[in-house]
Write a structure and sequence with these properties.
The complex is a heterodimer of chains A (228) and B (229). By secondary structure, chain A is mainly β. Helix content of chain A is 13%, strand content 46%. In chain A, strand 1 and strand 2 form a beta hairpin. The chains are: A mainly beta (228), B mainly beta (229).
Chain lengths: 228, 229
């Protein structure tokens, strides 16, 4: 099994080559672009329905995931995230964990890789910002995407601060606390104005565009309802 | 202060590197991340004569922010990374005392405090084109970070150019402009879809964006479900 990422950073596209029959890749529902003809798709609520429902409600992931299984040697599956932007791979050793912002998960390799939704805390919950995180635990390789380029920042003892709308993923070993930012900013821009102060040691991946700002830009252009 | 630009042109990210004591001013929504040794202040950037709600409304409709964040490196060096709302490029214009820069409302991202921003209305007060031609006037010295929807074309003009109002990002002093109709007659101008255009002449620099935010917004926004008033 091998993989290749093309089109970075603007339009990341993942190609997984399943080299032997029986090899498989699991992907978020809707992520498939194309595949060779000797690939079987199995749709499942991974981890059981309740666990999948929790991921859907809390983490913004789909309930269903697709498993692509090779029926012959040398089968390709092409996968892409939904927004225009980059796609990256993180290879995790056994027991190594990595956190993804809701919606960033695209696919993974490795039958023993664990996905679980982690509650990000009271402040994240009440702000409606959806700082629910998908906790990924190795062994395996996880692929994630974002809106715009994915910008890695190495965090050391001096810490780092990032806007929650731009945080896509971060490695274990980092802890964070949330606070509001920019004074009245949070009042007017849909749920914006929450930032995370990181401490510890690790890497944060930031998306260089915030989908909520695109939504804010488009809002005034929506047709206006004529009823009531 | 140095700006570092990455991921150009589509999903550009600018990092402003601050020396100890340096201060950067940026649009409120532009901050992506920063080092933790910065002191941040938020201020309301209203327009003289415009009330709070009025500024708010204009800001929403014109895509402009009315809050400015000020970042100061209080202990040692620091940085702030910045991005515009939409996909597209950013460039740094080096402002000197020999000229000023006029930036169309949503084109401005950030500048050090050595650059003064005048938020007066310029030019076309009460104009009926439906496109807001609001300019920020930047004066002083230092790098000014501007952004475009799409690619950013730099034109050093010595002569005359006709430009769609929605594609203008910024221009320097030395250039003069007037708003005019695109075709000879008013009806042709209307039917051509070009409506009003800018006639710009003189000698100076011009920044042009390859996409028009109003057209972009209409194309996507009209496909969205209706909103309440």
């Amino acid at each position: 099994m091998k993989y290749e990422i093309e089109g970075s950073p603007d339009y990341g596209l993942l190609r997984v080559t399943l080299e032997a029959p029986g090899e498989q890749v699991v992907a978020e529902s809707g992520a498939m672009v194309a595949m060779d003809s000797q690939v079987e798709i199995q749709t499942s609520a991974r981890g059981g329905f309740l666990s999948a429902a929790k991921r859907k409600i809390l983490g913004g992931e789909s309930i269903f995931q697709n498993t692509f299984i090779a029926k012959a040697a040398g089968q390709n599956v092409w996968l892409a995230p939904a927004p225009e932007g980059d796609l990256r791979a993180i290879e995790l050793a056994r027991g190594e964990t990595f956190f993804l912002q809701s919606g960033a998960y695209v696919a993974h390799l490795g039958a023993d890789l664990k996905l679980d939704t982690k509650w990000a805390g009271v402040k994240g919950f009440f702000s409606g910002v959806g700082l629910f995180l998908l906790k990924v635990e190795g062994p395996g390789t996880v692929f994630f995407g974002g809106y715009g380029a994915l910008h890695p920042v190495a965090v050391g003892p001096e810490g780092y601060t990032a806007d929650t709308g731009h945080i896509v993923a971060f490695s274990a070993g980092l802890d964070y606390s949330l606070r509001s930012f920019g004074g009245m900013k949070g009042l007017f821009l849909s749920g914006e104005g929450l930032i995370a102060d990181f401490g510890g040691h690790g890497t944060i991946y930031l998306q260089t565009r915030d989908p909520r700002l695109l939504a804010d830009f488009l809002h005034p252009f929506r047709p206006v309802s004529s009823s009531d | 202060m140095q700006f570092e630009l990455n991921y150009r042109p589509s999903h550009s990210l600018a990092t402003a590197h601050l020396e100890p004591g340096e201060t950067l001013r940026a649009e409120a929504s532009a901050m992506v991340s920063m080092t933790r040794n910065l002191e941040v202040h938020t201020s309301f950037r209203g327009r003289p004569g415009a009330g709070f709600m009025q500024s708010l409304k204009r800001g929403f409709l014109g895509g402009e922010s009315f809050f400015t964040n000020t970042f100061t490196a209080v202990s040692g060096k620091g940085h702030v990374s910045l991005a515009p709302k939409l996909c597209g490029d950013m460039v740094v214009h080096e402002l000197t005392s020999s000229h000023e820069l006029f930036i169309q409302g949503s084109g401005y991202v950030a500048a050090p405090d050595s650059v003064e921003l005048d938020t007066r209305w310029q030019g076309f007060k009460g104009f009926l084109s439906g496109e807001s031609l609001f300019f920020l006037r930047a004066l002083g010295q230092g790098p000014v970070l501007i952004n475009a929807l799409g690619a950013l074309e730099t034109i050093d003009l010595d002569g005359e150019l006709i430009l769609d109002t929605g594609h203008l990002v910024a221009f320097t002093t030395g250039l003069e402009y007037e708003i005019t109709k695109a075709s000879a007659g008013w009806i042709d101008s209307f039917l051509s879809g070009e409506g009003f255009v800018l006639r710009i002449w003189g000698r100076g620099r011009l920044y042009v964006q390859s996409r028009n935010p109003a057209e972009y917004g209409k194309t996507l926004g009209h496909k969205l479900p209706a909103r309440q008033q």
